[in-house]
C-alpha cells in the first residue's frame, strides 16, 4: 500500500488577475504563499513520509513545493521537475484576461475553451523555446493544447516516474497545476470525457489517494 498526495500551487498573480497563463512563468502572490504554507500544515498533520516530490518546471509550482516541503520537514527528499507536469498550454489565449475574452466571444465559447476535454484553443503563430526546455530537445512547448493533449502528455510521467515508486511502497507528493491535476484525477477516478468539465481543483487544497498493492484506489480525501 502507498499514498499519493496531489496539490495545486497557491494563488499566482495570473490567478489573482484572472489571466490565462498556461506555460507562462508567473510568481505566487503573498496569498499564494500563505495557501502553500497552510497546505503544508495539512499534509504535515497526516504524518506521511514521502519518497519523492514531483513538480513542473514553472515557479508557481516549484515555490509551492519548497514551502510545503519545509512545512512537513522533508526538504531532503528527492525532487523531480518535468515539463510533463506543466499547466495546459492555452495557446493564443495566454496572457489575456478571461473576462475580456468572454466579452469578445461569449460565455459559451470561453467555457468550451476552458473546460472541454477535446477542444483546442486558438494556437500561437509560433513558439520561441524557453532555454529551460533545451535539454528535452526542440519543439517541447506546443502552440496550444486541449485538456486531452495535456492528459496524453502527463500519462507517460505517471507510468514511468510516479506509479513505479508507489508500487514499491513509497508515498509520493505531486505539486502541479489545475489542468494537469484534473487530467490525473480523470485517470485515477475514471472520469468520463463528458464529465471532466465538472472537476475543479482549488489552489492550495491537498488531495490524498490511498492505493492497494496494485494501485487500485482504496480511498480519496481532500485534506
TrEMBL record:
The keyword Isomerase applies. The record marks 177 as: Transition state stabilizer. Keywords: Gluconeogenesis, Glycolysis, Isomerase. The keyword GTP-binding does not apply. This is 2,3-bisphosphoglycerate-dependent phosphoglycerate mutase. It comes from Levilactobacillus lanxiensis. Belongs to the phosphoglycerate mutase family. BPG-dependent PGAM subfamily. The active site is at 9 (tele-phosphohistidine intermediate), 87 (proton donor/acceptor). Its EC number is 5.4.2.11. The gene is gpmA. It catalyses: (2R)-2-phosphoglycerate = (2R)-3-phosphoglycerate. PROSITE patterns: PG_MUTASE. Catalyzes the interconversion of 2-phosphoglycerate and 3-phosphoglycerate. Pathway: Carbohydrate degradation; glycolysis; pyruvate from D-glyceraldehyde 3-phosphate: step 3/5. SMART domains: PGAM. Substrate binds at residues 8-15, 21-22, 60, 87-90, 98, 114-115. InterPro entries: His_Pase_superF_clade-1, His_PPase_superfam, PG/BPGM_mutase_AS, Phosphogly_mut1. The lineage of its organism: Bacteria, Bacillati, Bacillota, Bacilli, Lactobacillales. It comes from the Bacteria.
Amino acid at each position: 500500500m502507498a499514498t499519493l498526495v496531489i496539490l495545486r500551487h497557491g494563488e499566482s498573480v495570473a490567478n489573482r488577475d484572472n489571466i490565462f497563463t498556461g506555460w507562462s512563468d508567473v510568481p505566487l502572490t503573498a496569498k499564494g504563499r500563505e495557501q502553500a504554507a497552510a497546505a503544508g500544515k495539512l499534509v504535515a498533520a497526516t504524518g506521511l513520509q514521502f519518497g519523492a516530490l514531483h513538480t513542473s518546471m514553472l515557479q508557481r509550482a516549484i515555490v509551492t513545493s519548497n514551502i510545503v516541503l519545509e512545512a512537513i520537514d522533508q526538504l531532503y527528499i528527492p525532487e523531480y521537475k518535468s515539463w510533463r507536469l506543466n499547466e495546459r498550454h492555452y495557446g493564443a489565449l495566454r496572457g489575456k484576461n478571461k473576462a475580456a475574452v468572454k466579452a469578445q466571444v461569449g460565455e459559451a465559447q470561453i467555457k468550451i475553451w476552458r473546460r472541454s476535454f477535446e477542444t483546442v484553443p486558438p494556437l500561437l503563430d509560433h513558439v520561441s523555446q524557453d532555454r529551460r526546455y533545451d535539454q528535452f530537445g526542440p519543439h517541447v512547448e506546443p502552440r496550444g493544447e486541449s485538456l486531452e493533449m495535456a492528459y496524453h502528455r502527463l500519462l507517460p510521467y505517471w507510468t514511468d516516474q510516479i506509479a513505479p515508486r508507489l508500487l514499491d511502497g513509497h508515498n509520493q507528493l505531486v505539486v502541479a497545476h489545475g489542468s494537469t491535476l484534473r487530467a490525473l484525477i480523470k485517470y485515477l477516478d475514471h472520469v468520463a470525457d463528458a464529465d471532466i468539465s465538472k472537476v475543479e481543483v482549488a489552489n492550495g487544497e491537498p488531495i490524498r489517494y490511498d492505493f492497494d498493492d496494485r494501485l487500485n484506489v482504496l480511498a480519496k480525501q481532500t485534506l
